[in-house]
């Protein structure tokens, strides 16, 4: 089976699987966690994460995001810019309350599958993707950014994969996403130290592609990126991108349930719960 068919078939299967669980209802009255608008000048879709105050990534946000990605795929959009509607934060990573204290196993399983689904749809999207990192992007926030093809960031924010200091081990598909952007040695240093880089450091090592001072500049730099594909047939571009990314995606698609079980086992270890707990407490105490 070719890769595009594998992606479509798996998406259909997992959607059915994911829809069969208990965590389905999104109230129609609930506020949207993901907003979509279209830049009328360029025809590019702007997708804004909107889970106040810090865009921590919950099961509900992942589900909504995946729905948006499906819509953009079927509309065959010219490109997508992913940004945040929250002040100073692109995304604060996985919602820690999904991990601590002692998550409900069924909910956690669904949460993790939707996180995988988000990555599969974003990393494997047919259309060009830009992350406009308009705030801090630790952990899962950084995962969203490195799943895009191009990264543009405002000054003075932090980005990186700080899982290890929080007692969490990044799964191989996250590690490999980072290695698709940075050389293996640099990726290992960042992951094992869990150090968050400021915008300039991130630019210097190639984790981000451009530094901009405001949204207007970000839109202009994004347009420069999107226009590099204007003379490339859409289908050829999409299949070429997916050809480059297919090994990692196929590997995860074949191993989704096991990947979820492994992560849950790690999260439920008493020592992991203890580290996450004291980290979460220190986050709360910072403001006291
Ligand atoms: C790589 C994928 C592999 C899988 C594992 C992933 C693990 C994770 O993603 S764990 C999450 C890791 N995230 C972080 O370490 C970031 C933690 N947050 C911060 O450092 C800061 O909040 C911020 C720099 C992002 C923003 O700082 P700011 O001063 O603007 O806001 P705060 O007052 O700190 O936060 C407001 C409010 O939100 C709570 N909060 C922040 N982050 C999270 C989160 N990830 N999950 C749940 N809740 C979070 C924070 O405690 C505050 O709550 P209160 O208002 O109740 O004090």
UniProtKB/TrEMBL annotation:
One of the GO BP terms on file: fatty acid beta-oxidation
CDD domains for the chain: crotonase-like
Main location: mitochondrion
Catalytic activity line of the entry: (3Z)-decenoyl-CoA = (2E)-decenoyl-CoA; (3Z)-dodecenoyl-CoA = (2E)-dodecenoyl-CoA; (2E)-tetradecenoyl-CoA = (3Z)-tetradecenoyl-CoA; (3Z)-octenoyl-CoA = (2E)-octenoyl-CoA
Pathway membership, UniProt: Lipid metabolism; fatty acid beta-oxidation
Key words, A-Z: Acetylation, Fatty acid metabolism, Isomerase, Lipid metabolism, Mitochondrion, Transit peptide
Location within or outside the cell: Mitochondrion matrix
Entry keyword annotation includes Oxidoreductase: no
Highest taxon listed in the record's lineage: Eukaryota
CC terms in the record's Gene Ontology section: mitochondrial matrix
InterPro entries in alphabetical order: ClpP/crotonase-like_dom_sf, Enoyl-CoA_hydra/iso
GO MF annotation terms: delta(3)-delta(2)-enoyl-CoA isomerase activity
SUBUNIT field: Homotrimer.
Function: Key enzyme of fatty acid beta-oxidation. Able to isomerize both 3-cis (3Z) and 3-trans (3E) double bonds into the 2-trans (2E) form in a range of enoyl-CoA species, with a preference for (3Z)-enoyl-CoAs over (3E)-enoyl-CoAs. The catalytic efficiency of this enzyme is not affected by the fatty acyl chain length.
UniProt protein name: Enoyl-CoA delta isomerase 1, mitochondrial
Taxonomic classification: Eukaryota, Metazoa, Ecdysozoa, Arthropoda, Hexapoda
């Amino acid at each position: 089976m070719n890769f595009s068919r594998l992606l479509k078939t798996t998406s259909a299967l997992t959607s059915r699987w994911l829809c069969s669980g208990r965590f389905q209802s999104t109230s129609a009255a609930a506020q949207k966690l993901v907003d979509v608008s279209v830049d009328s000048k360029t025809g590019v879709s702007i997708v804004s994460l909107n889970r106040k105050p810090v865009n921590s990534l919950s099961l509900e946000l992942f589900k909504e995001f995946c729905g948006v990605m499906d819509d953009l795929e079927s509309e065959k959009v010219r490109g997508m810019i992913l940004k945040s509607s929250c002040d100073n934060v692109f995304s604060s990573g996985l919602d820690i309350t999904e991990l601590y204290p002692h998550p409900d196993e069924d909910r956690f399983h669904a949460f993790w599958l939707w996180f995988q689904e988000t990555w599969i749809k974003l990393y494997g999207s047919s259309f060009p993707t830009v992350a406009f990192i308009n705030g801090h992007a630790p952990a899962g926030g950084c995962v969203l950014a490195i799943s895009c093809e191009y990264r543009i960031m405002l000054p003075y924010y932090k980005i990186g994969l700080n899982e290890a200091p929080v007692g969490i081990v990044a799964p191989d598909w996250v590690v490999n996403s980072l290695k698709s952007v940075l050389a293996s040695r640099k990726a290992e240093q960042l992951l094992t130290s869990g150090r968050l880089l400021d915008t300039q450091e991130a630019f210097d090592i190639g984790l981000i592609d451009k530094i901009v001072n405001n949204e207007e500049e970000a839109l202009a730099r994004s347009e420069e990126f999107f226009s590099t594909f204007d003379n490339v047939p859409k289908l050829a571009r999409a299949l070429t991108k997916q050809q480059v990314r297919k090994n990692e995606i196929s590997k995860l698609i074949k191993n989704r349930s096991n990947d979820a079980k492994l992560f849950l086992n790690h999260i439920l270890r008493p020592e992991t719960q203890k580290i996450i707990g004291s980290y979460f407490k220190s986050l709360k105490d910072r403001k006291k």
